[in-house]
């Protein structure tokens, strides 16, 4: 299968995209989740135990239903990013890069030359060299692979202007939970100080050519940030299941 990133295409058309974090090493469950109509799924190798070897089956489940498979990698180290992308992910979420230099390192690890230095071999992402030549694949992969960088510490938020200058970063993504912790209000992203920093980040990103992304566990929060210019939204699988179960049990028990 030739990698084609429908989420990236939608963002280029200015459309909003919606995805879901997923951290179970269960391709069948991932397939069911993919069938619900998401633009993308993010397989979580940070706050989850997913390894590159788990990603392959999850990517297949996603591709089967035209949903963009993205991996949240545990760090920006080149050998880590390489394994998640080679397993077939169409993009990476990179958490906890607190400097623009760290973000640039992630881009270099994710892209082939001349932009980057990703290690080249016939891997799953490139159809093992069967579907097209490696030369064609490197160009395609550079075009289709997305890089999403988290802004989730006070240090990163203060440097956001520098992040907007990095070529080939597609999305600058606010992580409200880590940011709340970093700003001294753990687990309270609604605190006015946290809100203020998120709004400052949003202003800088929306004035640049990068897409603003944010974790939005509720439709109301997503709608508010759509108005603020965000176009890349994520929710979490467990949070949505919890809401569904609570709504059901509350209704049936009166
Ligand atoms: C955060 O809120 O810290 C995130 O990383 C969202 O996924
Ligand atoms: Mg985070």
Written account of the structure:
The chain is α/β, with parallel strands linked by helices. It has one domain (6-252): Alpha-Beta Barrel (TIM Barrel), CATH 3.20.20.60. It contains 12 helices and 8 strands. The chain has an 8-stranded parallel β-barrel with strand order 1-2-3-4-5-6-7-8, surrounded by 7 helices. The longest helix has 16 residues, at 237-252. The N and C termini lie far apart (50 Å). The structure holds 3-hydroxypyruvic acid and magnesium ion.
CATH superfamily: Phosphoenolpyruvate-binding domains
How many runs of DSSP E, i.e. beta strands?
Answer: 8
| Radius of gyration from the alpha-carbon trace, in angstroms | 18 Å
Can you give the mean pLDDT? 97
* Strands side by side in the biggest sheet: 1-2-3-4-5-6-7-8
CATH class: Alpha Beta
Q: End-to-end distance, in Å?
A: 50 Å
Low-confidence stretches: none
Bound molecules: 3-hydroxypyruvic acid, magnesium ion
Helix content: 40-55%
CATH topology: TIM Barrel
The outline comes out as globular
**Which H/E pattern describes the elements?**
HEHEHEHEHHEHHEHHEHEH
Number of domains: 1
Counting DSSP H or I runs of 4 or more residues, the number of helices is: 12
Q: What portion of the residues fall into strands of 2 or more residues? A: 15-25%
The secondary-structure class comes to alpha/beta
Tell me what the CATH architecture is: Alpha-Beta Barrel
User: Largest sheet, if any?
Assistant: 8 strands, parallel, barrel
């Amino acid at each position: 299968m030739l990698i084609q990133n429908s989420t990236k295409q939608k963002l280029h058309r200015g459309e909003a995209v919606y995805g879901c974090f997923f951290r179970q090493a269960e391709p069948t469950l991932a397939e069911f989740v993919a069938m619900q109509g998401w633009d993308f799924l993010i397989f979580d190798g940070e706050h989850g135990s997913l390894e590159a070897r788990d990603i392959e089956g999850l990517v297949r489940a996603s591709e089967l239903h035209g949903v963009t498979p993205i991996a949240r990698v545990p760090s920006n180290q080149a050998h880590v990013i390489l394994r998640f992308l080679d397993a077939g992910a169409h993009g990476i979420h990179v958490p906890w890069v607190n400097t623009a230099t760290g973000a640039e390192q992630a881009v270099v690890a994710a892209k082939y030359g001349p932009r980057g230095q990703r290690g080249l071999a016939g891997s799953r992402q490139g159809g093992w060299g069967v579907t097209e030549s490696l030369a064609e694949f490197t160009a395609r992969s550079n075009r289709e692979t997305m890089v999403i960088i988290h802004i989730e510490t006070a240090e990163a938020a203060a440097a956001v202007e520098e992040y907007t200058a990095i070529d080939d970063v597609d999305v600058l993504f606010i992580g409200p939970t880590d940011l709340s912790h970093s700003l001294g209000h753990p687990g309270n992203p609604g605190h006015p100080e946290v809100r203020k920093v998120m709004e400052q980040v949003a202003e800088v990103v929306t004035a640049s050519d990068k897409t603003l992304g944010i974790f939005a566990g509720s439709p109301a929060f997503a709608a508010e940030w759509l108005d603020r210019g965000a176009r890349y939204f994520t929710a979490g699988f467990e949070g949505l299941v919890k809401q569904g179960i609570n709504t059901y049990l509350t209704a049936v028990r009166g």
